[in-house]
Amino acid sequence: MYKSLLLAGLGAGLVAAPAFAGPYGYGAPYDGYRGGDDAPAYARVVHSEPVYQAVRVDQPRQECWNEPVTYRDPRYDNNVAAGGIIGAIAGGVIGHQFGQGGGRAVATALGVAVGAGVGANTAAANTPRAERVGYQQRCREVADTHYEDQVIGYDVTYRYGGRDYTTRMPYDPGERIAVNVSVQPQGY
């Protein structure tokens, strides 16, 4: 029985020992902890708040509309050409009647030129309008511009050795953050 009491007392002492450890043991009074000489030190994150910035966003979109367009109807162009040809023939025949000898060729040529002009102008004046109106879809690309709040970082407050520190990080570190700890002797 004495042996079992001794073993029970030793076991309870081993379990309770960490609770009474000094400032550098497992029950250290500071918030940060370090795993060993080569392991990084960690600090507890107390607060993490996102930092926003308004960012311009250009999003292209297509804008379309129907625009009236005037078309020439090529069927009516043939009437003007035919009128010019008929006028040239008639003018040539008439010019040929008035000329004599060498002047006959000049009169014929002059009759062809004048007859072609008169025939084309007469056909154009008597031909219905050679245009029609239709609609054609026109499109262009325009930018829809708006501003969005985007997270550009996090203001992080962490506690190490009983003191609070603040830094800005590009991401949310979570519950703890790795820190560099440097211990140097105070100058004499």
From TrEMBL:
Pfam families with a match to the protein in the record: Rick_17kDa_Anti
Natural source organism: Solimonas marina
PANTHER family: OUTER MEMBRANE LIPOPROTEIN, PTHR35603
Keywords (A to Z) from UniProt: Membrane, Signal
Keyword Nuclease (UniProt): no
Gene Ontology cellular-component terms listed: outer membrane
Lineage: superkingdom: Bacteria
Signal sequence annotation: 1-21
Subcellular location: Membrane
Protein name stated in the entry: Glycine zipper 2TM domain-containing protein
Domain Glycine zipper 2TM, chain residue ranges per copy: 82-121
Keyword hit for Signal: yes
InterPro entries noted in UniProt: Bact_OM_lipoprot/Surf_antigen (IPR051407), Gly_zipper_2TM_dom (IPR008816)
